[in-house]
Amino acid sequence: MNSKKILWTALLLVAGNMGLNAQYDRQQFFYHGRQMLIEGKYPQAIESFNMLIRLDANLYEAYFFRGIAKYNLGDFVGAQIDFDRTLSINPVFTPGFHYRAITLSRMGKYDEALKDLGEAVALRPSYTGLYFSRGVTFLLSQQFEKAVQDFNRFIKFEPRESVAYLNRGACYLYLKDTVRALEDYNTAILLNKFDPEGYIRRARVYLLEERYADALVDLTSAISLDSTNTFAYFNRALVHNSMKNIMGTLDDFDKVLRYDPENALTRYNRALIRTQIGDYENALSDYDRVLEINPGNVLAYFNRAGLFAEIGRYRDALEDYSQAIELYPDFANAYMNRSYVKYQLGQLSSAQQDRDIARQKVQEHRLRMEQEGISDIAAFADTTQRFDELLALDADFAKRDFNNDLLQYRDVDIRLKPLFKLLAGRVEPVISLERVYYYPDMERFMANQPMAIGLFSESPASSAQILAGGAELLRNSLTPDAEPELLFAKGIVDFQNKQFNSALSYYDRAIALDPNNLYYYINRGALQSEMIEFISSMDSNVQVLTLDDAGTTRARVQEQSRRNYDYSAAINDMEKAASIAPDFAYVHYNLGNLYCLSDRMPESIRAYTRAIELYPYFAEAYYNRGLIQIYLKDREKGCIDISTSGELGVKDAYSVIKKYCVRAD
User: How far apart are CA 405 and CA 263, in angstroms?
Assistant: First the structure.
């Protein structure tokens, strides 16, 4: 059952139950939000359901649909929170249990998901979609017999749903029943001959049965249906390899990487093939990238070490074998091969020690085989096993060391939302007036300026004409005894025109004349921070918040030659502003940014928290605090904050959530 069909089912179920008290405005927001869901415009849908929730905080359907929108944006934490709220208001709402279960399953919380599905089945045993979802959850949690039972129930009522046969076939394959798996895949193809997935799954069975010609036909059919299907190309490469067609194998791996350049498993396999044909330089390049993506990949270190040894780079080989051993201390072959490398380097005593350790590991392995049978734990101590064979997507190694995630990005730079300052420009009107931040002193200050200004994080689109007019106005007004308002306005003009030193001098003069003006300090602090960013960008040395593929976040300096930048002047100005106006939310937000850039993370979180206390709808503060919390390894809180920022309108939130808040299967 595809996601669009499930969504339509949910829409019909809830639309039938929803009592909107015949209030026109609620109906409008509900139907607009529902239409946005159908069209896949999920951020707009969230805005509509936000409005419904503000109209009636107990409208459980609004939380439910907002949860669906968040789910489709990959925000599983936020979706679960909304489904929790749905069920707290209406504890017998079957779709709430169903969709929370689907969300929990995507988060890897299978026991909780199965509990919810049990509740849903008890409430509505005739709703067949529940059996499909529970079957998928049983499959993901490797309870294959139970999964088969649920797919049987579903197929009894929905005999023409091809995806059910694909999933039941996968269960049979895990249960080693290739005959039934093949029957289900045949049925799926008959029901939907235009779905490449059926051909790919059937080809996998043919590959296991060494029916290579049949597998090749199926995979080519899949590619004819979807020329960008990397899974089909990957599997066809394995078939070509089994048929000793090296160039066909390489060509298909190249096609995978054309569409998914950071596909770690494909790069690993291509490195093995390139090594076989003597293309050592490109093989090393592939191994290097695999280890950048997944530094815990034992076999990549082991095989790269063998390649280094082959070309006489013994010290590099020694380092890689040592790394493989550090990651997996029972790796007998790594000790054996490191022994050889040490002999080549003249480290005779150490080489003999490695050889003795290898023999001991082998003996322990054989004893364990006799007592318990071969296990994954002992496999690396088996010297009879080859470790230079191509790996399939469903191999145990792929599940463990590639984290079942073939497209993992490392060194992805996610920048904090920038500081706020007063700039030339007009503030766009906001529909949700109750969410607008109103600070009377700032409103009075802006009203008395010689040109239109507003509080922005970046120069608004409306700034160009205002800046030109402001520059013309100030050209004859900036006498040596000019008022601080004029000096400040000139500072803004120069700031937005990237004339940083000139802007700084005008801000200095304005502060000298009016040393207790909150807004002068805010702008001078923001200017000094941006000057550092500008200088550092010229050095290719920008400090950013970086998250890697494992969800690890760090304040990292991209560098060619490392330099440290001092934000103390900017911090001093912002702290001065905070002392003048401790109730101004944006000052605390700016301090949060500056503390983060100075690696003062706990202080940064406290500053963002204070900003949110003063302004509960401060989307950028939630977003930035979320990034910092992930950096401090408090991922759950961080993802909740980022989810909240997305709910409040930060579009970047969902790309962050998809990369760093979604648990790998």
Answer: 9
